[in-house]
Amino acid sequence: MSTHRPPTLAPAGQPSWRRRRLDPDHSLGLRLTLAATAAFLVLVPFALLTLLVLGAWAPLHRLDTAVTHALHGYALDHPAWVTLMRIWTEVFAPMPLRAVALLLVIWLLRRGARRLALWATTTMVVGGLFSPLLKLLVGRDRPELLDPVARAAGYSFPSGHALNATLAAGVLLLVFLPFAGRGAARVALWVAALLLTVVTGLSRVALGVHFTSDVLGGWLLGVAVLAATTAAFTSWRAHTGLRPVRPTRDGVAPEVERHPGSA
Protein backbone atom coordinates (compact mmCIF):
# COMPACT_ATOMS: atom_id res chain seq x y z
CA MET A 1 0.00 0.00 0.00
CA SER A 2 1.57 3.25 -1.09
CA THR A 3 1.22 6.57 0.62
CA HIS A 4 0.96 9.87 -1.21
CA ARG A 5 2.55 13.01 0.10
CA PRO A 6 0.20 15.98 -0.23
CA PRO A 7 1.37 18.51 -2.81
CA THR A 8 3.19 21.57 -1.54
CA LEU A 9 3.95 24.91 -3.14
CA ALA A 10 7.62 24.76 -2.19
CA PRO A 11 10.03 22.05 -0.99
CA ALA A 12 9.99 21.34 2.73
CA GLY A 13 12.09 23.82 4.65
CA GLN A 14 12.37 26.25 1.74
CA PRO A 15 10.57 29.60 2.13
CA SER A 16 8.03 30.69 -0.44
CA TRP A 17 8.86 33.13 -3.24
CA ARG A 18 7.18 35.95 -1.33
CA ARG A 19 9.12 35.17 1.85
CA ARG A 20 12.39 35.07 -0.08
CA ARG A 21 11.71 38.43 -1.75
CA LEU A 22 11.07 40.13 1.59
CA ASP A 23 13.61 38.27 3.71
CA PRO A 24 16.47 40.57 4.87
CA ASP A 25 18.81 37.56 4.73
CA HIS A 26 18.19 37.34 0.97
CA SER A 27 19.47 40.83 0.26
CA LEU A 28 19.38 40.57 -3.52
CA GLY A 29 15.69 39.68 -3.67
CA LEU A 30 14.76 42.21 -1.01
CA ARG A 31 16.64 45.08 -2.64
CA LEU A 32 15.29 44.26 -6.09
CA THR A 33 11.76 44.19 -4.75
CA LEU A 34 12.08 47.45 -2.83
CA ALA A 35 13.82 49.24 -5.70
CA ALA A 36 11.29 48.02 -8.26
CA THR A 37 8.51 49.17 -5.96
CA ALA A 38 10.12 52.59 -5.57
CA ALA A 39 10.49 52.99 -9.35
CA PHE A 40 6.87 51.93 -9.84
CA LEU A 41 5.64 54.39 -7.22
CA VAL A 42 7.42 57.22 -9.05
CA LEU A 43 6.04 56.11 -12.42
CA VAL A 44 2.47 56.13 -11.11
CA PRO A 45 2.26 59.93 -10.62
CA PHE A 46 4.10 60.45 -13.92
CA ALA A 47 1.60 58.23 -15.74
CA LEU A 48 -1.29 60.05 -14.04
CA LEU A 49 0.14 63.44 -14.98
CA THR A 50 0.59 62.28 -18.58
CA LEU A 51 -3.05 61.17 -18.75
CA LEU A 52 -4.20 64.53 -17.38
CA VAL A 53 -2.12 66.35 -19.99
CA LEU A 54 -3.44 64.13 -22.79
CA GLY A 55 -6.99 64.67 -21.58
CA ALA A 56 -6.51 68.45 -21.31
CA TRP A 57 -7.84 68.34 -17.75
CA ALA A 58 -9.29 71.80 -17.09
CA PRO A 59 -7.92 72.38 -13.53
CA LEU A 60 -4.39 71.47 -14.66
CA HIS A 61 -4.71 73.70 -17.71
CA ARG A 62 -5.87 76.63 -15.58
CA LEU A 63 -3.00 76.13 -13.14
CA ASP A 64 -0.41 75.89 -15.92
CA THR A 65 -1.79 78.98 -17.63
CA ALA A 66 -1.95 81.02 -14.42
CA VAL A 67 1.66 80.24 -13.47
CA THR A 68 2.91 80.88 -17.01
CA HIS A 69 1.23 84.27 -17.30
CA ALA A 70 2.32 85.33 -13.80
CA LEU A 71 5.97 84.50 -14.49
CA HIS A 72 5.79 86.01 -17.96
CA GLY A 73 4.53 89.28 -16.52
CA TYR A 74 7.43 89.28 -14.04
CA ALA A 75 9.90 88.53 -16.83
CA LEU A 76 8.65 91.46 -18.94
CA ASP A 77 9.26 93.83 -16.03
CA HIS A 78 12.68 92.42 -15.07
CA PRO A 79 15.10 92.04 -18.02
CA ALA A 80 17.98 91.10 -15.70
CA TRP A 81 15.94 88.12 -14.47
CA VAL A 82 15.39 87.01 -18.05
CA THR A 83 19.12 87.26 -18.77
CA LEU A 84 19.95 85.17 -15.72
CA MET A 85 17.40 82.50 -16.66
CA ARG A 86 18.65 82.43 -20.25
CA ILE A 87 22.24 81.94 -19.12
CA TRP A 88 21.25 79.20 -16.66
CA THR A 89 19.07 77.34 -19.17
CA GLU A 90 21.84 77.41 -21.79
CA VAL A 91 24.65 76.37 -19.45
CA PHE A 92 22.61 73.47 -18.06
CA ALA A 93 20.90 72.45 -21.28
CA PRO A 94 20.79 68.74 -22.19
CA MET A 95 23.83 68.79 -24.49
CA PRO A 96 26.24 70.44 -22.00
CA LEU A 97 25.04 68.07 -19.30
CA ARG A 98 25.61 65.09 -21.58
CA ALA A 99 29.12 66.39 -22.28
CA VAL A 100 29.78 66.52 -18.52
CA ALA A 101 28.42 62.99 -18.19
CA LEU A 102 30.73 61.84 -20.99
CA LEU A 103 33.74 63.35 -19.19
CA LEU A 104 32.61 61.54 -16.04
CA VAL A 105 32.40 58.24 -17.92
CA ILE A 106 35.89 58.74 -19.38
CA TRP A 107 37.24 59.51 -15.90
CA LEU A 108 35.61 56.39 -14.47
CA LEU A 109 37.01 54.22 -17.27
CA ARG A 110 40.51 55.59 -16.62
CA ARG A 111 40.08 54.61 -12.96
CA GLY A 112 39.04 51.10 -14.01
CA ALA A 113 35.44 51.52 -12.80
CA ARG A 114 33.90 49.97 -15.90
CA ARG A 115 30.63 48.85 -14.32
CA LEU A 116 30.05 52.26 -12.77
CA ALA A 117 30.79 53.91 -16.13
CA LEU A 118 28.27 51.58 -17.77
CA TRP A 119 25.63 52.51 -15.18
CA ALA A 120 26.19 56.25 -15.74
CA THR A 121 26.05 55.82 -19.52
CA THR A 122 22.90 53.69 -19.39
CA THR A 123 21.13 56.14 -17.10
CA MET A 124 21.85 59.16 -19.30
CA VAL A 125 21.15 57.40 -22.61
CA VAL A 126 17.96 55.58 -21.60
CA GLY A 127 16.57 58.61 -19.81
CA GLY A 128 17.53 60.93 -22.63
CA LEU A 129 15.70 58.80 -25.20
CA PHE A 130 12.42 59.04 -23.30
CA SER A 131 12.07 62.80 -23.76
CA PRO A 132 11.82 63.04 -27.59
CA LEU A 133 9.75 59.86 -27.76
CA LEU A 134 7.19 61.06 -25.23
CA LYS A 135 7.08 64.53 -26.77
CA LEU A 136 6.01 62.96 -30.06
CA LEU A 137 3.49 60.65 -28.39
CA VAL A 138 1.87 63.36 -26.28
CA GLY A 139 2.16 66.14 -28.88
CA ARG A 140 1.54 69.02 -26.49
CA ASP A 141 2.15 72.51 -27.86
CA ARG A 142 4.31 74.97 -25.97
CA PRO A 143 2.83 78.07 -24.27
CA GLU A 144 1.67 80.76 -26.68
CA LEU A 145 2.51 84.27 -25.46
CA LEU A 146 1.97 87.62 -27.18
CA ASP A 147 5.39 89.00 -26.29
CA PRO A 148 7.65 85.99 -25.58
CA VAL A 149 11.03 86.53 -23.93
CA ALA A 150 12.40 83.23 -25.28
CA ARG A 151 11.53 80.63 -27.88
CA ALA A 152 12.00 76.87 -28.15
CA ALA A 153 11.24 74.39 -30.92
CA GLY A 154 9.33 71.14 -30.70
CA TYR A 155 6.67 69.84 -28.40
CA SER A 156 6.40 70.61 -24.71
CA PHE A 157 5.73 67.53 -22.52
CA PRO A 158 7.86 66.43 -20.76
CA SER A 159 10.59 69.04 -20.37
CA GLY A 160 13.86 67.71 -21.74
CA HIS A 161 15.81 70.25 -19.69
CA ALA A 162 14.15 69.11 -16.46
CA LEU A 163 14.57 65.42 -17.31
CA ASN A 164 18.25 65.66 -18.25
CA ALA A 165 19.07 67.91 -15.30
CA THR A 166 17.53 65.32 -12.98
CA LEU A 167 19.49 62.50 -14.60
CA ALA A 168 22.81 64.37 -14.60
CA ALA A 169 22.40 65.63 -11.03
CA GLY A 170 21.48 62.15 -9.85
CA VAL A 171 24.39 60.46 -11.62
CA LEU A 172 26.93 63.00 -10.35
CA LEU A 173 25.53 62.83 -6.82
CA LEU A 174 25.53 59.03 -6.60
CA VAL A 175 29.04 58.75 -8.08
CA PHE A 176 30.68 61.40 -5.89
CA LEU A 177 28.91 60.76 -2.56
CA PRO A 178 31.72 58.38 -1.46
CA PHE A 179 34.23 61.21 -1.90
CA ALA A 180 32.20 63.69 0.17
CA GLY A 181 32.75 62.18 3.62
CA ARG A 182 30.17 62.83 6.31
CA GLY A 183 30.34 66.59 6.86
CA ALA A 184 29.70 69.83 5.03
CA ALA A 185 30.95 68.45 1.70
CA ARG A 186 28.11 65.90 1.67
CA VAL A 187 25.53 68.62 2.36
CA ALA A 188 27.06 70.83 -0.33
CA LEU A 189 26.87 67.98 -2.85
CA TRP A 190 23.19 67.39 -2.10
CA VAL A 191 22.42 71.11 -2.31
CA ALA A 192 24.24 71.41 -5.65
CA ALA A 193 22.32 68.45 -7.10
CA LEU A 194 18.98 69.88 -5.94
CA LEU A 195 19.79 73.35 -7.25
CA LEU A 196 20.81 71.98 -10.64
CA THR A 197 17.57 70.01 -10.90
CA VAL A 198 15.13 72.58 -9.53
CA VAL A 199 16.50 75.79 -11.02
CA THR A 200 16.96 74.25 -14.47
CA GLY A 201 13.35 73.17 -14.51
CA LEU A 202 12.06 76.47 -13.16
CA SER A 203 14.09 78.42 -15.73
CA ARG A 204 12.03 76.82 -18.49
CA VAL A 205 8.77 78.00 -16.92
CA ALA A 206 10.23 81.43 -16.14
CA LEU A 207 11.15 81.88 -19.80
CA GLY A 208 7.69 80.85 -20.93
CA VAL A 209 8.81 77.88 -23.06
CA HIS A 210 7.29 75.18 -20.82
CA PHE A 211 4.27 74.74 -18.61
CA THR A 212 4.76 73.83 -14.96
CA SER A 213 3.38 70.32 -15.58
CA ASP A 214 5.98 69.80 -18.35
CA VAL A 215 8.75 70.42 -15.84
CA LEU A 216 7.09 68.28 -13.16
CA GLY A 217 6.80 65.47 -15.71
CA GLY A 218 10.51 65.75 -16.53
CA TRP A 219 11.45 65.60 -12.86
CA LEU A 220 9.24 62.58 -12.16
CA LEU A 221 10.48 60.67 -15.20
CA GLY A 222 14.10 61.44 -14.34
CA VAL A 223 13.69 60.14 -10.78
CA ALA A 224 11.96 57.00 -12.09
CA VAL A 225 14.81 56.25 -14.53
CA LEU A 226 17.40 56.85 -11.79
CA ALA A 227 15.54 54.54 -9.42
CA ALA A 228 15.33 51.79 -12.04
CA THR A 229 18.96 51.89 -13.17
CA THR A 230 20.23 52.24 -9.61
CA ALA A 231 18.16 49.22 -8.61
CA ALA A 232 19.70 47.19 -11.43
CA PHE A 233 23.23 48.31 -10.50
CA THR A 234 22.90 47.62 -6.77
CA SER A 235 21.45 44.17 -7.45
CA TRP A 236 24.37 43.52 -9.80
CA ARG A 237 26.71 44.50 -6.95
CA ALA A 238 25.02 42.09 -4.55
CA HIS A 239 25.20 39.29 -7.13
CA THR A 240 28.97 39.78 -7.51
CA GLY A 241 29.53 39.65 -3.75
CA LEU A 242 30.14 43.34 -3.05
CA ARG A 243 28.74 44.71 0.17
CA PRO A 244 25.19 46.11 0.14
CA VAL A 245 24.84 49.89 -0.06
CA ARG A 246 22.24 52.56 0.48
CA PRO A 247 22.71 54.69 -2.64
CA THR A 248 21.39 57.94 -1.14
CA ARG A 249 23.83 57.57 1.76
CA ASP A 250 26.81 55.67 0.34
CA GLY A 251 26.54 56.33 -3.39
CA VAL A 252 26.16 53.48 -5.85
CA ALA A 253 29.79 52.32 -5.61
CA PRO A 254 31.57 53.49 -2.45
CA GLU A 255 34.61 51.35 -3.24
CA VAL A 256 35.41 53.58 -6.22
CA GLU A 257 37.08 56.02 -3.81
CA ARG A 258 39.76 53.56 -2.66
CA HIS A 259 39.53 50.60 -5.02
CA PRO A 260 38.19 51.96 -8.32
CA GLY A 261 38.94 48.82 -10.29
CA SER A 262 36.31 46.87 -8.35
CA ALA A 263 33.44 49.26 -9.16
Description:
This protein is an all-alpha fold and 263 residues long. The protein has one domain: Vanadium-containing Chloroperoxidase, domain 1 (Up-down Bundle), CATH 1.20.144. The protein contains 10 helices and no strands. The relative contact order is 0.15. Residues 5-27 have low confidence and may be disordered.
Summarize the SSE layout with pairings.
Elements: H1 17-22, H2 27-54, H3 58-77, H4 79-91, H5 94-110, H6 114-138, H7 160-176, H8 184-206, H9 212-239, H10 247-250
Helix pairs in contact: 2-9, 4-8, 5-6, 5-7, 6-7, 6-9, 7-8, 7-9, 8-9
CATH architecture: Up-down Bundle
Q: What is the CATH top level name?
A: Mainly Alpha
The total domain count is: 1
Any idea of the CATH topology?
Vanadium-containing Chloroperoxidase, domain 1
Contiguous helical run count: 10
Order of helices and strands: HHHHHHHHHH
